[in-house]
Amino acid sequence: MNKRKIFNDPVYGFISIPCDILFDLIEHPFFQRLRRIKQVSLTSYVYPGALHTRFHHALGALHLMGQAIEVLRSKDVEITDEEAEAVSIAILLHDIGHGPFSHTLEHTLINIPHEEISLRFMQRLNEVFNGKLTLAIRIFKDEYPKKFLHQLVSGQLDMDRMDYLNRDSFFTGVSEGVIGYDRIIKMLAVKDGELVVEEKGIYSIEKFLIARRLMYWQVYLHKTVLSAEQMLVKTLWRARELALAGNRPDVPRSLAFFLGQHITLEDFDANLPDMLSHFARLDDYDIFTALKIFTENPDPLLAYLSASILDRRLFKVELKNQPFDPAYSEGVRKKVAAYFVDFPPNSPDYLVIQGDETNNAYNVSKDEIKILFKDGNVLPMSQVMDFGLQVKVVKKFYLCYPKEVLRD
Questions:
Q1: pLDDT (tens digit per residue) in 361-370
Q2: Is the dihedral of CA 41, 43, 48, 52 positive or negative?
Q3: What's the rounded Cα separation, in Å, for the pair 142 and 5?
Q4: Cα-Cα-Cα-Cα dihedral of 318, 323, 327, 329, to 10°?
Q5: pTM of the complete model
Q6: Phi and psi for 318 in degrees, rounded to 5?
């Protein structure tokens, strides 16, 4: 069977699969599940075209990894065929541990970072494929001597970020996120075992960092997207509260499994085969099915939240640069309690959502992007004179609540 397949990608055109093991991994049910998990959660509620999946993203990141390997080899960086295959496996599977709606429900259904679940899926696949993922796992965990290979998978200039910025801007139609990914990749090099960018690529990197900052505030942390995603989180919290109280909703079996208990990483590892089996059956379709079922639940709060998400009756969002006055927040809670008088007493805990979101375009605390100058010197991006981007963390505070209370 010919496994050197070609995928027609709307962003990059034709993507080729360079080795058999990659095609076999793509064909595995663990990976095929990514077709049913949206890349940017409920962002389509604001940008209707944002319906692409983790499957698309993984293939795109694999494609860019192939380009990066080719560029580095052309600059006499030693990358063996075994290492090229392993780093390609690592980037292909880097997001395989994402649950339904990606980051939105990452600490809701199960309080474990997706990277940890990705690692456990990779270890299970390593057993299935008779140890062929061993080197990929070492690279993924940053346990391999050639640090630059891990940096291509997970770093401030990795192929993951390179693809999701490019892909998300394409499908949302937000042109501010467009980056010169091809030029950046061509400027990559290796110095003292670490990934660097040649001096002439400085301005492409600045554009990349600016695009990332703009995409976060304009897409990923858009206030309407924030409202929809926080409502989804609260809906699942309410469903869990009812399930733990003995009122188990009629939902898909694996979703019921996670709603009915609080699972830690230790719990996950203690019963790993069963946990992976249940997790591998979860996707966005389970959540949408549950939401439709919840609309007929006798609990009015759960029914209201679920119908509001399905029908896009989203909460109003207030954003501020400073924390909300506690008296103001309490006033909103009282209005909500008075309006939804037939709901359970703790309804304001679910209908008034308060928190904060942070973003910084560039992190100087670790693993900075390094610039290689013509004289052989290497400087971190933050010390380059032309680098004019602010590196401080920007925090915004939000308050979400039903719009109905404003009409009362």
A1: 777 777 889 9
A2: negative
A3: 30
A4: 40
A5: 0.95
A6: -110, 130
